[in-house]
UniProtKB/TrEMBL annotation:
Tree of life domain: Bacteria
Domain HEPN, residue spans: 11-118
Pfam family, one: HEPN
Alphabetical list of SUPFAM superfamilies matching this protein: Nucleotidyltransferase substrate binding subunit/domain (SSF81593)
Organism of derivation: Candidatus Curtissbacteria bacterium RIFCSPHIGHO2_02_FULL_42_15
Name the record gives this protein: HEPN domain-containing protein
InterPro entries per UniProt: HEPN_dom (IPR007842)
Length: 127
C-alpha cells in the first residue's frame, strides 16, 4: 500500500474518532467514551504525522511518547505538549471502571478541545 494512502487512512480513522466524540459530547452516560475517542483521535493524528515523515516508532498509546518522536522532526509540536499530556491517560483510564473519574460537563468539553487542537495542528502540519 502506498504511503500516501496509509497516511490518509490514519487521518480518516482519527477524524472518525473525533466525530464520535463530538456526537456524544452531551450524553452523560458516554463521557468515558468521549474521552477515549478524543485520546484515540489524538494518537492517530500523531501517528499519521510520524508515518508522513517516515519515522520509526514502536507500538504505543502514550501520546507523550509519540509527541517526542514528532518533536524531533518538528519543534512546533511542543505547542501541543499540554494537550497530549492531558489526553494520554484516557486510553487506560477509560478501559477500566475503577479509573472512572466522573468528568464534569466542562471537563469533557475541555478534553474535546484538546483533541481538536491536536487534530488541527497535525492537519495543518501535514498539508
Amino acid at each position: 500500500m502506498a504511503a500516501k494512502k496509509i497516511i490518509q487512512e490514519w487521518l480518516l480513522t482519527a477524524e472518525k474518532d473525533l466525530k464520535i466524540a463530538k456526537e456524544d459530547i452531551d450524553k452523560l452516560e458516554r463521557r468515558q467514551d468521549v474521552s477515549f475517542h478524543c485520546q484515540q483521535s489524538a494518537e492517530k493524528f500523531l501517528k499519521a504525522f510520524i508515518i508522513f515523515k517516515n519515522l520509526e516508532f514502536r507500538p504505543t498509546h502514550d501520546l507523550e511518547t509519540l509527541l517526542q518522536i514528532c518533536s524531533q522532526q518538528n519543534r512546533e509540536f511542543e505547542s501541543i505538549k499540554t494537550e497530549c499530556k492531558m489526553l494520554s491517560p484516557f486510553y487506560i483510564g477509560t478501559r477500566y471502571p475503577e479509573f472512572d473519574e466522573g468528568l464534569t460537563d466542562e471537563e469533557v468539553k475541555e478534553v474535546l478541545r484538546y483533541a481538536e487542537k491536536i487534530a488541527n495542528f497535525v492537519k495543518k502540519t501535514i498539508k
